[in-house]
Specification:
mainly beta; four-stranded antiparallel β-sheet; globular; 0% helix
Amino acid sequence: VQLVESGGGSVQAGGSQRLSCVASGSTFWRYCMGWFRQAPGKEREGVATIDDNGGTMYADSVKGRFTISKDNAKNTLYLQMNSLKPEDTAKYYCAADNLLICRLSTSAYNYWGQGTQVTVSS
């Protein structure tokens, strides 16, 4: 599975941004897909996941503000981010793996994109 993210950039606090991740090389819709992020000096953390049935899971820090979704016809994963905060500043990564149960743990995923930077200014 090859994953390519896009949509990062700079935004002011309170603003919105949408990230995209195009997947190729395998049966996209059967995989657990997730968004993770890593801020400077911090460990990579899970943000949101979506399973093959469309079931979603979110980190507490983004619940109610971020929405993960996917378009199976386009092999594309999305992350809609609203009400952005400076603490959301990080490099965001798309990940995928053929898991029985989707998890927010970075160690569960073997396929990763190169990441896209999101910077939120106050």
